[in-house]
Amino acid sequence: MTLIGGFALIAAATPGASFTPRVELRRVPDGGIQPQTVVGRDGTVHLIYFKGEAGEGDIFYSRSKDGITFSKPIRVNSVEGTAVATGNIRGARIALGRQGRVYVAWNGSAKLAPPAEGHSPMLFTRLNNAGTAFEPERNLIQTAYGLDGGGGIAADRQGHVYVFWHAPVPGHRGEEWRRVWMARSNDDGKTFEPERMAWDRPTGACGCCSLNAYADPTGTLYVLFRSAQEIVHRDMYLLESRDHGTSFTGANVSKWNVGACVMSSEAFASNTKATLAAWETEKRVHFGFVPPDPAQMTDSPISDGGKNEKYPALAANRDGAFLVSWTEGMSWKHGGSLRWQVIDSKGQRIGREGDADGVPAWSFTSAYPLANGNFVILY
Asked: Are 126 and 104 in contact (CB under 8 A)?
């Protein structure tokens, strides 16, 4: 590993490859944790991160034209101390919609929660037209309360914005009654329909696990979530919608029998050739290319084995390569290390696996491509 200009620059030789992406390691600006990034069609990198007390902190937003130098941060939440980082999987999520508009959703802290137990809010905001401030946050939950694990957000180029979370069917308790709920906007996040069940199959949902949502460049909508059938069947399910969230198909894509809440998360990324997904199964990070039929999803571990692999992040570059990064050795209130692997559009490894120490407590990695085809990992 070589240090250049205060960050790590890693190159891996691949015989016969026309271009081998380099991976640059950078710290989250402003001493933040829990970075989330998304890249616009113009190459602008949009970043959110967390600062403050784990149970009552703040989300900040910054952007970069070159992927290296970021703008002065803007606080996302209008009410101070209304975001959480506890448990690594309840933090903020970011999405870009029509004309590059920025949307953020996050689990609200106890500061905004009503006094009734289990009524934590699912908060949403969007960047104003001038790009100078965020609108006051809104709670999108009207009936499906019981938020625990983190939610997800997705947006497409047609003006649809989707916020997902899992919670019990009203009037019931227990993981077996949890379902994936969706609030949808058809006007760029200005208004939202009341939440409804995205998929009514009785799979349950792992209470303290997050889910993730993603809209690919064609507008196809995906959700990954962990089930909780009979408590021990904590399998990964992929949902897919080709009609802007009106209906979903779904399939079990990765089985894991474990009688514990594993506090896991998921990731998506697309290039011009494919959409890649990543998740955790049996304490290892797995990946698969998303097919037209969810039941045909592939399922492969990304590494040859590590120690408690968690919190995958994905990025796709202009040349068809993907970067998969993840953490190792993370535990409650304790940090760990990061690892990464570049793969091609067929899932074959490009170069060697990389590793580094220093992921802070309650944090994880985020990755994005540079204009030259190289990658950056924030941690």
From this structure: yes
Residue pLDDT, tens place only, 193-249: 999 999 999 999 999 999 999 999 999 999 999 999 998 999 999 999 999 999 999
Residue 140's CATH number: 2.120.10.10
Q: Which amino acid is at 309?
A: E
Q: What is the pLDDT of residues 7-22, one digit of tens each?
A: 444 444 343 346 789 9
Burial class of residue 83 (count of CB atoms within 10 Å of its CB; 0-12, 13-18, 19+): buried
What range does the domain containing 165 cover? 98-363
In this structure, is residue 141 part of a structural domain?
Answer: yes
Q: Is residue 149 part of a domain?
A: yes
**Is residue 80 in some structural domain?**
no
Any domain includes 53: no
* DSSP type of residue 305: -
Per-residue HEC secondary structure of 169-224 comes to CCCCCCHHHEEEEEEEECCCCCCCCCCEECCCCCCCCCCCCCCEEEECCCCCEEEE
| Edge-to-edge strands, sheet with 300-301 | 267-270, 275-281, 284-289, 300-301
- Structural domains counted in the chain: 1
Residues 126-155 as b or e (16 or more Cβ within 10 Å = b): bbeeeeeebeebbbbbeebbbbbbbbbbbb
